[in-house]
C-alpha cells in the first residue's frame, strides 16, 4: 500500500488570507504541518496540492525552495486536485490533511493509518461517525479506488470542493470506518 499524504493549501482563505505562509514560531504555518506529518513514518510521499491561481504561486515557490513535492490544480474542484495528485504519485492509499492544522498530531495520524491498514474499509476518519479528537487534529484516509470513484461520480459542488463528503454520505457505496479518542475532546 503506497501511502501518499496530500495536504491541500491555498492563499485565498476568506477568514485569514495567506494564513498558510504566515509566520508561526519563526516558520510559516505550512512548515509546521509538514514537520509534524514527517514524524509519521507510515507515509511514503507527502505532497502539497495547491491551485493554479496566481496568488498560489507563492506556495508552489516556497515548496520548491523547501524541496517539497507540490502539484497545482483547480481552485474550486479540490476533489479533482486530489485525484490528479494521487494519480501523479501512484497512490494506493491517500491521506487527506488541510494546511491550516499546524498542530496535527503525528500519533493520531499514525494510529489512523495503522487502523485503516488492518480494517476492511474504503474510508476512515478521525471525525466519522462523530468527532472526539480536538479540532485541528482532523485527518482522513481512503483507498485510491474510493477516491477515483468519488472523482468520477460526485457532481454536487459541495462534494467537489470538500473532497470526501461523497464517500461518507454514501455508505451503500463505500465501507466506512472511524477512530475515536478515549474521551471526547472535541470541544
Structural class: alpha/beta
Number of strands: 9
- The chain-level mean pLDDT equals 97
User: Largest sheet at a glance?
Assistant: 7 strands, mixed
Q: Which H/E pattern describes the elements?
A: EEEHEHEHEHEEHHHE
Gyration radius, in Å: 15 Å
Shape: globular
Low-pLDDT parts are none
The share of residues in extended strands comes to 15-25%
Give the count of helical stretches.
7
Please provide a written account of the structure.
It is built from 7 helices and 9 strands, in the order E-E-E-H-E-H-E-H-E-H-E-E-H-H-H-E. With 187 residues, the chain is an alpha/beta fold.
Describe this structure in a few short sentences.
With 187 residues, the protein is α/β, with parallel strands linked by helices.
Feature tags:
alpha/beta, 9 strands
Set out the fold topology:
Blueprint: E1 3-8, E2 23-24, E3 27-28, H1 29-37, E4 45-51, H2 57-65, E5 69-73, H3 78-88, E6 93-98, H4 106-118, E7 123-125, E8 140-143, H5 144-153, H6 157-162, H7 165-168, E9 176-178
Parallel strand pairs: 1-4, 1-6, 4-5, 7-9
Antiparallel strand pairs: 2-3, 6-8, 7-8
Helix pairs in contact: 3-5
